[in-house]
Amino acid sequence: MRKTVALVGVGLLTATATACGGGTQAAGGDKTLTLAESVTATPWDLAKASMGPESQYYQPVYDTLLRLDTKGQPTPNLATSWSYDKAQTTLTLKLREGVKFTDGTALDADAVRKSLLHTKSGTASAAGEIQDITGVDVVDTHTVAIKLSHPTAALLPALGQVSGMIAGPKALEDPRTPVGSGPYKLDTGATTAGQTYTYTRNPDYWNAKAFPYDKIVVKYLADPTARTNALLSGQLDGATLSLNRVKTVKGRGLNVVTYQPGDIEGLYIWDRAGKKVPALGKLKVRQALNHAFDRDAIIKSAKTGLGTPTTQLFAKGEDGHKAALDDAYSYDPAKAKKLLGEAGYPNGFSLTIPDLSANFPQEQAVLNQSLKDIGITVKLDTLPTDQIFSAMLAGKYAMSYFKLGAPTAWDKVQLELTKKSTWNPFKYDDPKADDLITRIGEATGTQREALFEELNTYVVDQAWNAPWSVIANAYATAKDVKVTPQPGSQYPPIYNYAPAN
Amino acid sequence: MLVFLFRRIAAGAVLVVVVATATFLLLSLTGTDVARNVLGETASRSAVAAKSHELGLDQPLMERYWRWIEQAAQGNLGSSWFTGDSVNQSVTDTVPVTLSVVVAGMLLAAVFSVVLGAAAALRGGWVDRVVQFAAVLGTAVPSFLLALVLAVTLAVRLGWLPATGYVPLGTSGTGWLRSITLPALSLAVGATAATAMQVRGALIDVLRADFVRTLRSRGLTTRSVVFRHALRNAAPPALTVLALQFIGLIGGAVVVEKVFGLPGIGTLANSAAVRGDAPVLLGTVVVVVVIVVAVNLLLDVAYGWLNPKVRVS
Predict the structure, then answer these.
(1) Torsion of the alpha carbons at B181, B186, B187 and B191, rounded to the nearest 10
(2) ipTM of the prediction
(3) Which of A193, A230, A390 faces B31 most closely, judged by CB atoms?
(4) Which positions 294-323 of A are in contact with B (Cβ < 8 Å)?
């Protein structure tokens, strides 16, 4: 017994000493792309899939009807062409011919119909994106017509993401192993659910040259330190990076790209009617809050210089964004105090906000200090991470630090600005904004753009929130891998990776 | 001995049920909107309500509890609310990772602590002082810090060992050994520090005992006295400390797994706790309690083996 103990001990030590020769496999050279994801997957049922960061798990196996280019514009993929009818409520798509799922079944109009309706039947965010679909008609073997309850600009972008992925009929019935028509197949032997997913080439894929790698490995690695270490030691070809690691990783010669996933962060004012904290019902108080933040300094200190200062809810490139609005509220604590005085709060006021320091230490610190500087006293309420959303949505806090994003500007409006919106926890209702939103829903082209800008201007003037920056994400790749980030996407899609020469 | 074992196993089973029940109740009382967390912040209210129904969260607490107990008694721990993965499978995948690291860490600690403790006790003088100082240092340095330093220096800078990841023993023996060496080492240092002092103290006491003087007076060599008699008598207290360390190491493994990106049960429990994934968290709690109970049982058996007096009582 003691002998075995000693032997194993010695074994461990020799492994330490002799391992120097081994080294990990050179990444990239073997045409394998190894990526890390910071969230676990919900494979393989698209009805349970979400649009966010977990897309990379699905992209190798499930191809999409459309593909979004790096400007976010839809381009042909499984659908070679598409057109709307006059009323903008029927979208007819021509499907690529000769495409097969990996089990040999043909990808035809009926398969597309079944898959889309299956995704829509779910409750997750991929399903949410296509809730306006009322039916899918099979026009002929290679033509489908998607019927909408009302015109929506969100449909085409959605069809280029998880919502527009097409799973084979068999995978819909039994989603334990994915059957798609994507560029890769899941290698079940080299896959451990929740940990590592390995994909090998689908030999029949119609567009193989768009995918330079023979094998893709997606690993779940939640810890930012572990991700950085794995990147630096060559175990990974790509991973999302904490902003405070950007310098180190760049310094070691790796490629780092930054991009905007579209999230706006800052102080979100939920109680705009002053139901819980009467002061917030006054316009001047909300405007004072907007003057409280030194946006450039916040980005410099809390965001290590990455991000773009903003005072509006729409990011550059989104519908409704108006550059001039970013000058609406300058950093001016004196003016903020003056506005508070005019609103009847010369000595400020106090309120309770959630303490999100566990997840956003610098951001929370900045918020607390900025509020204190204009005379607002905050009492911090600590709560466990898994209860933050529920507490906020239940209207427990009149305002808080937050960040929100959505695939398109219209989605953002639906998410935050209508009376029924999920992120309008106090159900704040404003007839003027409602009217604008209704008109945007019905408008098209330049008229729609103008209405969007009008809505944005109104919301900024009314100081519904006090945003401070458009978030920047950082993504690092190995020296021999280059990646093109995709605006509006949390992680670059797998077709944006290529060997660097 | 058999009756004794049986009693311990029964007590262990009761403990598992009590802990599982307490965990279930605590998880249900937190007021977490699980369906919201599953679907993410952008989901609509109606989708959240539908998800709640799908997960059975709209049913009475007692009903949900009985259903869970019934399934668990049949060896089915349910499936994750977030990913739908079977908890049994997740536990089966993650337990070997944690056990590899913890057991290797224990073995390293056992070897190091006996060597260091015995050296300090037998040599005395400066050796003793150095060991004592190192022990204080080893106890003071938190395992996550050590893990970070090891990861950055030996793995990232020098590339001697993998910085993250786990290779199953079945896939590659050396790969497995390489993947667990740094995590095990990070855990072993703290455990060694605590146990080495125990070995040193116990050995010094034993060497002063009357029977050792008797043995020596009979002309036995020091080597024989130390290895055949003294160490054996000094082992039980050291073993107790080591067993306690084992339970501590499982806790420490959570942090070490995180730093080294190991898909162990600590990582599983941690992500389940953060998200409020009750089936997974319950499953991991039950499994960890079972492991702890089993270790204590093994410890009792080991006591009996080392010291026959225990078997009688």
Answers:
(1) 120
(2) 0.82
(3) A390
(4) none
CA dist., res. A287 & res. A374, Å (int): 12
> Which of A22, A229, A411 lies closest to B156 in CB terms?
A229
How long a stretch of residues is chain B? Answer: 313
The SS3 assignment for A272 reads coil
For the beta carbon of residue B298, count every other beta carbon within 10 angstroms.
12
Instruction: Please determine, for residue A221, whether its predicted confidence score (pLDDT) is greater than 50.
Output: yes
Interface contact B104-A8, CB threshold 8 A: yes
Entry pTM: 0.85
Name the one residue in this structure whose structure tokens are 């610098």: A362
Spatial separation of the C-alpha atoms in residues A31 and A15, rounded to whole Å: 28
Q: Which residues pair with A135 in a beta bridge?
A: A147
Picking from A6, A222, A390, the nearest residue to B111 by CB comes out as A6
Residue B275 to residue A386, Cβ atoms within 8 A: yes
Q: Using the CB atoms, write b or e for A226-251: b if 16+ within 10 Å.
A: bbbbbbbbbbbbbbbbebebbeebee
For residue A406, the chain B residues in CB contact (below 8 A) are 42
Say whether B40 and A125 touch across the interface (CB within 8 A). yes
Contacts of A16 in chain B (CB under 8 A): 154, 160-161, 181, 185
Query: Is A27's pLDDT higher than 80?
Result: no
pLDDT tens readout for residues B185-209? 999 998 898 889 888 988 888 888 8
Q: Residue A19 and residue B181: Cβ atoms within 8 Å? A: yes
Q: Which residues does A108 contact at the CB level (< 8 Å), separation at least 6?
A: A95, A141, A142
pLDDT tens per residue across span A438-452: 999 888 889 999 999
Closest Cβ–Cβ partner in B84, B108, B163 for A229: B163
Helix, strand, coil tally for chain A in percent (to 5): 35, 20, 40
Distance, CA of A114 to chain centre: 26
CB contact residues (below 8 A), chain A span 97-136, against chain B: 123-125, 127-128, 131
Predicted confidence band of residue B31 (pLDDT cuts 50, 70, 90): low
Buried b (16+ CB within 10 A) or exposed e, A157-177: bbbbbbbbbbbbbebbeebeb
Query: Closest-CA residue in chain B for A25?
Result: B162
Q: Which residues, in sequence order, are bridge partners of residue A83?
A: A92
Instruction: Report DSSP state, residue A348.
Output: -
